[in-house]
Amino acid sequence: MRLIDDLIELACLRARPLAEYRHPAWQLLCALLILSVINSASAENFTGPLPARLGFSAVFALLESVLVTAVLTLWLRLSGWRERDSMWPLVVLSSGVQALEPLTSWLGEAAGQTLSGLLAVYSILVLVLGVARATGMPAWRVAAGVVMFLPLGAMLLAVMLGAAADMGWVTLPVAPADAN
After folding, report:
1. Residue 119 burial by CB count (10 A; 0-12/13-18/19+): exposed, middle or buried?
2. Whole-angstrom distance, CA of residue 47 vs CA of residue 54
3. What digits encode the pLDDT tens for the residues 128-167?
4. Which of 14, 16, 119, 179 is most buried by a 10 A CB count?
5. Helix 50-78 / helix 109-135 crossing angle, nearest 10 deg
6. Can you tell me the distance from the alpha carbon of 168 to that of 136, in angstroms, rounded to the nearest whole number?
């Protein structure tokens, strides 16, 4: 399947021109759903009913990918990029590195957290270099667009977690009370 081949190629930091990343929307949505299931299963920080957590993860993954695409597209267009092909398939495929996250649970806590952090950094690297090579824009410019997305992504997560907690979909961890 070409989608899996593209995912592997991007994980190996090999990107092609953007026009070559044409996949049916249903395949990209299935890829996001699979990543959502993986993320939901490995999310130790919050609990709640499994269907609700899966729904939360799926909606968040979709909104995050659309928001990343919109921010990067706008930023690159302001920087002179004029291509008409959608960046969304590339953004979705770039997030495939996150599928390796559950493997970190096999390691000790410190090593697992370290590897998890490295995977997060590598996932951003895959996105930046993939978009840069696929669009022909400089990697620093794409990286600046990713940095601009980060506060928006954090706000999206905060709003969605708050709404999901209010609806009872997830139970957020409670900070221990100060012993003072």
Report:
1. middle
2. 11
3. 999 999 999 999 999 999 999 999 999 998 898 888 888 8
4. 119
5. 40
6. 45
